[in-house]
User: Which sequence fits this backbone?
């Protein structure tokens, strides 16, 4: 009788498979894919910065996952920066409404849909994912209250409850959702993705410092958010809340009054230290208006200490530049976030009507560096600034402590995402 090899192995106790051959590893589970919707705009380095920051969090705390970026709006400069930092990243562009388009195809082959940081109140992606049975979640979100209290509030609450998780980048949004009865499996505070940014352009930043005669750690930066329009003439019926196409006399008065606070702060800083001030843009459209409202009215003897940038930049150059600033001061929130990411102290002179995202600095332990603009005189802002200046090493330690908490929350969120992918 002829005994087959299989029969012989079985009879001698040598079962076939990985257990019979220790050197043969078990087949690895298939790699999971996350589709990240982000990259909202290119004329706002905050909107640019969300993307590399969130990608870094994913890379560091969920390295086993493949990531596809659904980029809303990029240009060649931003694409090159992302490709350099994340060479394996796949990027798709297009609209969810394009049937069988690149975006729909990318979602179909992904295991999870992650909505990146933002203030938008869009629900189309939620409905689409629910329709096709794709799990989805939100990272670094802020909402105006009418998301859940407005005419479609109940409908939105029901949609949000379908999320696998929701991470709000500010405690005020978190409480608004909790009070409205939003109850996904996970609803917690999670940092804006821009905190994770680590892209740099040292060459351009150093050239800019040299061009303007700036010494490392001997200048501060400032930018005001005005009521100036983003896209004049596009839609005269748009809401007048944030970037009105036709600023009212009251809007202009607000801008003038706030600019005067910054002018006084500049004067006190220069008088005390003799160091320079840079009007550094977060948003392209503000370059014109910051020059008009802050720089132009300054007396000539003060102007020689102030640099007003006449060209916009990408977020990687800005980060390299902010790493060399003494303190970064901004009416917008994402320039201060970038400063913290590179270890530089900051001050966010916020106006809450822009959105509740202003509270995220309080949430990471930096409340004293986030004064409300309209209730804080220049003298108080100067006091905060000099507190940083007089014990700079303590200020840098404070930055490190805040960023350690940011990293802990980012790691926790990515661990939750890992659990969803493995379920």
Assistant:
């Amino acid at each position: 009788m002829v005994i087959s090899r299989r029969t012989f192995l079985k009879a001698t106790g040598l079962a076939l498979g990985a257990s019979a051959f220790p050197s043969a590893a078990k087949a690895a589970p298939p790699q999971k894919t996350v589709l990240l919707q982000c990259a909202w705009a290119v004329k706002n380095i905050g909107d640019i910065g969300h993307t590399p920051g969130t990608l870094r969090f994913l890379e560091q705390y969920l390295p086993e996952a493949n990531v596809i970026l659904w980029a809303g709006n990029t240009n060649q400069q931003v694409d090159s920066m992302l490709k350099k930092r994340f060479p394996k990243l796949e990027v798709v562009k297009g609209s969810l409404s394009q049937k069988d388009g690149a975006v729909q195809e990318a979602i179909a082959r992904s295991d999870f849909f992650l909505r990146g940081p933002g203030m938008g109140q869009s629900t189309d992606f939620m409905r689409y994912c629910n329709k096709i049975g794709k799990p989805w979640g939100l990272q670094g979100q802020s909402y105006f209250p009418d998301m859940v209290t407005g005419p479609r509030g109940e409908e939105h609450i029901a949609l949000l409850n379908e999320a696998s998780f929701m991470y709000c980048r500010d405690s005020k949004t978190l409480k608004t959702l909790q009070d409205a009865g939003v109850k996904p499996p996970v609803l917690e505070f999670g940092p804006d993705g821009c905190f994770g940014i680590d892209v740099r352009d040292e060459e351009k930043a150093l050239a800019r410092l040299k061009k303007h005669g700036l010494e490392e750690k001997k200048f501060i930066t400032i930018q005001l958010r005005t009521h100036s329009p983003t896209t004049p003439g596009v839609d005269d019926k748009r809401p007048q809340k944030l970037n009105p196409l036709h600023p009212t006399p009251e809007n202009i008065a607000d801008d003038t009054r706030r600019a005067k606070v910054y002018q006084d702060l500049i004067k006190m800083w220069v008088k005390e230290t003799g160091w320079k001030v840079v009007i550094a843009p977060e948003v392209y459209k503000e370059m014109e208006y910051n020059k008009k409202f802050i720089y132009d009215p300054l007396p000539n003897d003060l102007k020689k200490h102030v640099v007003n940038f006449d060209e916009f930049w990408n977020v990687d150059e800005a980060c390299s530049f902010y790493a060399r600033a003494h303190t970064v001061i901004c009416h917008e929130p994402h320039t201060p976030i970038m400063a913290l990411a590179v270890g530089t102290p900051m001050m966010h002179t916020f106006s809450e009507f822009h959105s509740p995202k202003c509270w995220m600095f309080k949430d990471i332990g930096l409340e004293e560096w986030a004064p409300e603009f309209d209730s804080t005189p220049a003298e108080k802002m100067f006091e905060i600034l000099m507190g940083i200046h007089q014990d700079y090493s303590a200020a840098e330690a404070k930055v490190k402590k805040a960023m350690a908490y940011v990293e802990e929350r980012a790691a926790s969120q990515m661990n939750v995402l890992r659990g969803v992918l493995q379920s």
